[in-house]
Amino acid sequence: MKKVVKHLFPKNVAEAVAMLAQYEGEARLVSGATDLMLWMREGKVSPSVLVDVSDVEEMRGVEVKDGKIFIGASMTHAEIAAHPLVKKIFPALSDGCRSVGSPQIRNLGTLAGNIVSAQPAADSVVPMTALGAVCEIVDAGGSCKQPISSLSKSVGVSNLDPTKEVMKTIEIEIPDGKYGTAFKRIAPREAMALPVVNVAVMLHAGSDGCISAARIVASPVAVVPFRAQKAEAFLIGKKPSAALYAETAVIAGDEASPRDSLVRGSGAYRKVLVKDLVEQALTEAAQTLM
Fold first, then answer.
1. How many of the other CB atoms lie within 10 Å of CB of 54?
2. Where are the beta strands (DSSP E) in 193-278?
């Protein structure tokens, strides 16, 4: 393990990007560091320079503008769980952030860190995927926007490079008309436990009252957060009803392919959990469609 010889504190995103470029792969972005410090101790990563963006103002705050909610990538899970705008507009995200780790972890760990860690069952990433979140990413060549669903490559491997790139903001479009979101989770205990299964959904109803758009995301049933696209398609054009949610949940459970796990249980058991949690989440999300 290399010794960290510099801990830098940029004033803005441009300065952070310049610092990363200056050290050509030897520097790594850091904010909460709840995962990074463990990786460094285990020798998985060995940066000699840390570029700390915890206090970069551009990466902080929550704002509603132009029909979207913009969230600074360095906002912590505790801040998002308690934020009144997030609780009002996207309760699934608030609930997911409230489920992360312990109070200590939630007070330090950031949304960007949870995304870059690329764990398929990350409790904030699953609802952000269901909400269709888009991330603004900045590097030496400029900035671009990428859907959150494109950032996880496999378990623990992100398509975002924290030695070159900075995630600045996360934006989520607020649907017109009636919509609903929900997050559900089963774990061995209430806190400090990885989920056996977690599920997030988003539903949007058209002017005729029928479901016009849907996203259903379940984890960990694949190497990245899994969208149950057959179940989503089954919902479209139908009137909300308990029977519809039950049928859709069966389809989602059939679509999911969780592996057997000594930690989380058998694949067959977790397929049943996916079905049950999807039905619960759809029922809750649909309450605001009426």
1. 15
2. 197-205, 211-219, 226-227
CATH number at residue 284: 3.30.390.50
Cα–Cα distance for residue pair 23/7, rounded to 1 Å: 12
* Residue 174 near residue 288, CB atoms below 8 Å: no
Distances from the Cα of 165 to the Cαs of 16, 18, 55, 77, 144, in angstroms? 9, 10, 17, 21, 11
| Three-class SS state of 88 | helix
User: Is 202 part of any domain?
Assistant: yes
- Could you give the CA distance from residue 182 to residue 191 in angstroms, rounded to a whole number? 19
Looking up tokens 């979101």, which residue turns up?
181
Is 269 in the same domain as 197?
yes
- The pLDDT tens digits for 108-139 are 999 999 999 888 888 999 999 999 999 999 99
What would you measure as the largest C-alpha separation in the chain, in angstroms? 62
pTM passes above 0.70? yes
48, 27 contact by CB (below 8 A): yes
- Quick count: other Cβ atoms within 10 Å of Cβ 241? 10
Asked if residues 149 and 129 have their Cβ atoms less than 8 Å apart, the reply is yes
Assign 203 to helix, strand or coil: strand
Where in the sequence is the domain holding 278, given as residue range(s)? 179-288
The CATH number assigned to the domain holding 148 equals: 3.30.465.10
Cβ atoms of residues 125 and 225 within 8 Å:
yes
Q: Which tokens in the block code for residue 254?
A: 């059939």
71 shares its domain with 169: yes
1 within domain boundaries: no
CATH code of the domain in which 37 resides: 3.30.43.10
At which residue do the structure tokens 């056996």 appear? 196
Q: Using one digit for the tens of pLDDT, what is the confidence trace for 10-45? A: 999 999 999 999 999 899 998 888 888 888 888 888
Evaluate whether 200 touches 129 at the Cβ level (below 8 Å): yes
